[in-house]
Specification:
2-enoyl-CoA Hydratase, Chain A, domain 1; binds (S)-3-Hydroxyhexanoyl-CoA; Rossmann fold; about 700 residues; eight-stranded mixed β-sheet
């Protein structure tokens, strides 16, 4: 028997314990161990019932995701679950932590399930581009009904144990010692003469009167909500099979659909995204045992949209925060902004009034730097001007206690220069939030030349606490995300000057999967931001870097995007939904003329290549310069901060899947046709020549 699964007989019960840290994933030794343990229980005449539980912080969190895409190893998970269900002695799964995916499927194979009340159960496979492939799509509808099963399997969202109890997925909630609770439950079963009860043999609950209609409605919803996604429709088909076929045939159909998903490039991309997010937490030069500073109280300087959003991130994580503004009037406006944001959530029903009051109680407005003497971390979110930053950091340096982390939310200034304004540059770090800061998951953690490992580790831990995807980046203009997005934005302006309409550019990229078109995104952030950068570039860039002129025309006409009701699109009466701007066509014509370009038809494929390859080429430069630690960090940044489609894995993974030689060929062609901006990144050339991928590359190779 394998060490990851322990078998112990206690009186008339077999206790089977999975012990495979960190999340008890069902890797091959665990599957084999479980199969052996259930066989041993079956064969041992002294055993009347089986209790299955897990050591550590969680029940089985699923199949071992690292095994996907590798040659299959016996026993397979479906085989194991079938064997568990077939056992002639009643079995009880005792759940705690998260019983997810294959973990829940193993539990559904057991004849009874009890769970600690803080457990969450779910079938999140769809988020990895898969469907539950070990009977979940057949057994869950039999227990919880088709509607609930569809909802859980298609959304992938886990539910609380109490809800799972209500839906018939769990029999009972328990507390205290898991083995004791499981044993007591099993003894009660035996005393009551209750034997095996196989989920697979149950009939689908009759509450779902018109099952066919339910299935069709879900299909229509999936087509509308997630067009282009491979797995969700197959999830629906697998549940449909449960409603039409006997168990054995339904399981066969589930297997076929699972294999289709497993082979899909979307599955590879989504699994990449899963590991990319976790990999981002590992920072070179910052070992896992680096001490982390305790953070009990925070401060934010500046009560603009960004500052308030950042303050709410702290409050939402239960951390008290002091929000500093220059005077009482500005502070009032900032605190009102915070109240308005929460009030909107209460109105929408996503927050209760009591929770709003509780959170606001953690937010304290101050106007005097002296009030920041005891805070553990300060995030500065003031105007992007070195003079203003100087004033802030000199005051922070004067009042903050030793050991306080001094963070800047700058998106465009040199963090090293900011650190040099203080006498403690090792305590200075960048925390670059994305707007709206209380909503967006991405946090770029900017490592200055002198930022200490301890401060970096603390910033990463803080990011996790704020429920952000924190990614370390180096200092350069725009860091990773904005430096790349500039190339993307510039290219969309060129496309407009060459002949595309705003709607064509945005539709092509939305169809590619971007959450938002690049031009609607620009309107949202305000075109004046791009204009300021453009002015700087006109003064500093060598002449071979041609620049678009369209932005100048829009800004001159007062079309600054959503804030003025007009930009690339029209936003009548404060609406946030882009509508065609009838004045744009004349500006496009004028811009084309000024650039000496004859307008032409551009295909959606061309628009996508110009936009996405511009991201990739810049990403390659960023990687080679060491601004990002690894390609997957760039992917995480784009997936969590820029609406890049997760099913494509991020720009660098997408390039890897296309083949870097293919990407390079197009970049070279664009270089010939469109000039200096398209100078191929040396790393792209090197890896393409070697037949390698960005994600297999490590610095120094
Ligand atoms: C499935 O079950 C398919 C079946 O239906 C059919 C098959 C035939 N495998 O997230 P964390 C690692 S599909 C391997 O930071 P948390 C993770 O990489 C699966 N490794 O912790 C990390 O490693 P490292 C369905 C896994 O406490 C470490 O564990 N299940 C797996 O914030 C800690 O992870 C899922 O999709 C895995 N399944 O969150 C659940 N899971 O330390 C996926 C985690 O080296 N997992 N690791 O970086 C999760 O959602 C979260 O990990 C969980 C814990 C909520 C469990």
């Amino acid at each position: 028997m394998q060490a990851t699964v322990q078998f112990e007989r206690r009186a008339n019960l077999a206790l089977i314990t999975v012990n495979n840290p960190p999340v008890n994933a069902l890797s091959q030794p665990v599957r084999q161990g479980l199969l052996d343990a259930f066989r041993a229980a079956e064969e041992d005449a002294r055993v009347d019932a089986v209790v299955l539980l897990c050591a550590g912080s969680t029940f089985i969190a699923g199949a071992d995701i690292k095994e996907f895409g590798k040659p299959p190893q016996e026993p397979s998970l479906p085989e194991l679950v079938n064997a568990i269900e077939a056992c002639s002695k009643p079995s009880v799964a005792v759940l705690h932590g998260t019983a997810l995916g294959g973990g829940l499927e193993v539990a559904l194979g057991c004849h009874y399930r009890i769970a600690r009340s803080d457990t969450r159960v779910g079938l999140p496979e769809v988020k990895l581009g898969l469907l539950p492939g070990a009977g979940g799509t057949q057994r869950l509808p039999r227990l919880a009904g088709v509607a609930k099963a569809l909802e859980m399997i298609v959304s992938g969202a886990p539910i609380a144990a109490a809800d799972a109890c209500e839906y018939g997925i769990i029999d009972e909630l328990c507390d205290g010692d898991l083995a004791a609770a499981g044993s007591a439950f099993a003894q009660r079963l035996l005393a009551a003469g209750r034997g095996v009860r196989r989920s697979g043999e149950q009939r689908i609950a009759s509450v779902d009167v018109d099952v066919a209609l339910l299935i069709e409605a879900k299909r229509a919803e999936v087509r509308k909500r997630s067009p282009g996604l491979f797995a969700p429709l197959r999830c629906v088909s697998a549940v449909e099979a449960a409603t039409l076929l006997p168990l054995a045939e339904g399981l066969k159909r589930e297997r076929e659909l699972f294999q289709e998903c497993l082979a899909s490039p979307q599955r590879a991309a989504l699994v990449h995204a899963f590991f990319a997010e976790r990999q981002a937490g590992k920072v070179s030069g910052v070992p896992a045992d680096t001490p982390v500073r305790e953070i009990k109280c925070a401060a934010v300087i500046g009560g603009g949209t960004m500052g308030v959003g950042i303050a709410l991130c702290f409050v939402n994580a239960g951390l008290p925060v002091k929000l500093l503004e220059v005077d009482a009037a500005a502070l009032d406006r900032a605190l009102q902004r915070a109240r308005d944001i929460y009030a909107a959530s209460v109105k929408r029903g996503s927050l209760t009034q009591a929770a709003m009051d509780q959170r606001l109680a953690l937010l304290e407005g101050v106007t005097d730097y002296a009030a920041l003497a005891d805070v553990d971390v300060v995030v500065e979110a003031v105007f992007e001007d070195m003079g203003v930053k100087r004033q802030v950091f000199e005051q922070l340096d004067a009042v903050c206690k030793a050991g306080a982390i001094l963070a800047s939310n700058t998106s465009s200034l040199d963090l090293n220069a900011i650190a040099a304004l203080t006498r403690r540059p090792a305590d200075v770090v960048g925390l670059h939030f994305f707007s709206p800061a209380n909503v967006m998951r991405l946090l770029e953690v900017v490592r200055g030349e002198q930022t200490s490992a301890e401060v970096l580790a603390s910033a990463m831990a803080l990011g996790k606490r704020l429920k952000k995807v924190a990614v370390v980046v180096g200092v350069c203009d725009g860091f990773v995300g904005n430096r790349m997005v500039f190339q993307y934005g510039r290219e969309s302006e060129f496309l407009l000057e060459e002949g595309a309409t705003a709607q064509q550019v945005d539709a092509a990229l939305r169809d590619f999967g971007m959450a938002m078109g690049p031009l609607a995104m620009r309107d949202l952030s305000g075109l004046d931001i791009g204009m300021a950068i453009r002015k700087r570039q006109r003064e500093t860039l060598p002449s071979e870097y041609r620049l678009p002129c369209l932005l100048d025309k829009l800004c001159a006409a007062g079309m600054l995007g959503q804030k003025t009701g007009k930009g690339f699109y029209l936003y009548p009466a404060g609406s946030r939904t882009p509508q065609p701007n009838p004045e744009l066509a004349a500006l496009l014509e004028a811009a084309s003329q000024q650039q000496g370009i004859e307008r032409r038809e551009l295909s959606a494929a061309h628009i996508v290549e110009r936009s996405i390859f511009a991201l990739i080429n810049e990403g390659a430069k960023i990687l080679e310069e060491g601004i990002a630690q690894r390609a997957s960090d760039i992917d995480s940044i784009y997936l969590n901060g820029y609406g890049f489609p997760a099913f494509r894995g991020g720009p660098m993974f997408y390039a890897d899947q296309l083949g870097l030689d293919q990407v390079l060929a197009r970049v070279r062609e664009f270089h010939q046709r469109f000039g200096a901006w398209w100078q191929p990144a040396p790393l792209l050339e090197k890896l393409a020549a070697e037949g390698r991928t960005f994600n297999s590359w490590e610095p120094g190779q």
